[in-house]
Write a structure and sequence with these properties.
eight-stranded antiparallel barrel; 12 strands; about 300 residues; 2 domains; about 25% strand; globular; four-stranded mixed β-sheet; alpha+beta; Lipocalin; about 35% helix
């Protein structure tokens, strides 16, 4: 038996030595000699690569409520998570009705905290719980404007990463006009939503009056257009209470949107100023809850 293995090993070595040089890969073929040639290692590497690619393309998860057909999107990120409650048919939320030409469902920033039994609880910056994901994968979502939680389960979808879509300055101004009508009717007093002129050198302002300004205007407008809806929604939260509506009518006559280096909310001499950062995404404007919280603490 020992002699048999000795002969077999000698035959294998002789066959390898007699293999033609042309069968071996050349440096010009881009082969890294330090890589393992073990076929099992190659298979594992391909499997890991496929798994990584699959996970990267499915970062956004779609959930559907168990009680009805409402849906929301959830995206985990390294510094937290994002959630977007999609608009449905005849959705009564201001987000879904203020602009008939384009829905404006809010994207919320969430921070995770560890809950009991291994659950993960996601809250917004104001401390409100919007989503709870159990250790077994089930989810409980707290729909905006409703005080109870709803069970939800994952659904199929191929949704893009959450972020603001490109919108023109005209969209922002159209939303401002709609917000003026809605909030004025809700408070019983005229409250004008006004978009301040774009800051910049005279050459830039002049360029915006030409046909070549469309791309520049569109690139800066998403945050502004979103800020208009978020502010209107924040005002609505406070004005839904009769006392809040009366105070808003007495204290606010104008809502002004201005470019700034940092997003902020300020109220002075009857003007509610919303400062937004055009170059940023949702981080460049205050959320609807941040606007409502500011008004509750200031008015």
């Amino acid at each position: 038996m020992r002699r048999f293995f000795t002969v077999l090993l000698t035959s294998i070595i002789a066959a390898a030595a007699s293999a033609p040089v042309s069968a071996l890969p050349s440096p010009e073929q881009g082969v890294v000699l330090s890589q393992s040639t073990d076929p099992f290692s190659a298979l594992v590497g391909k499997r890991v690569e496929r798994r990584s690619t699959r996970r990267a393309s499915h970062d956004v998860q779609r959930y559907v409520l168990a009680s009805d057909d409402r849906a929301f999107l959830f995206e985990e990120r390294t510094n937290g998570a994002l959630i977007k409650f999609l608009c449905g048919a005849d959705d009564p939320r201001l987000d879904c009705s203020i602009d008939p030409e384009s829905t404006a469902a809010e994207i919320y920033q969430l921070l995770p905290t560890r809950g009991p039994r291994g659950d993960v609880i996601y809250k917004n910056a104001e401390g409100d719980t919007l989503l709870r994901i159990a250790s077994y994968g089930g989810a409980t979502v707290f729909w905006p404007g409703e005080g109870r939680g709803y069970g939800a389960s994952k659904s199929f979808g191929d949704d893009a990463s959450l972020g603001l879509p490109l919108m023109s300055r005209e969209t922002a101004e159209r939303r401002a006009r709609a917000a003026t009508a809605l909030i004025s009717a809700l408070t019983g007093a005229p409250i004008i939503f006004e978009v301040a002129p774009v800051a910049g050198p005279p050459s830039m302002a002049k360029a915006q009056t030409t046909a070549h300004s469309t791309t520049h205007s569109t690139a800066l407008a998403p945050v502004l257009a979103d800020a208009v809806v978020r502010t209107a929604a924040g005002l609505q939260m406070v004005a839904n209470d009769p006392t809040g509506a009366r105070i808003i009518a007495n204290r606010i006559q104008r809502v002004l949107f201005q470019e700034a280096a940092v997003s902020n909310v300020d109220l002075a001499e009857g003007v509610l100023t919303i400062q937004y950062v055009p170059e940023m995404d949702i981080e460049g404007r205050p959320s609807s809850r941040a606007v409502a919280r500011y008004l509750e603490e200031t008015l």
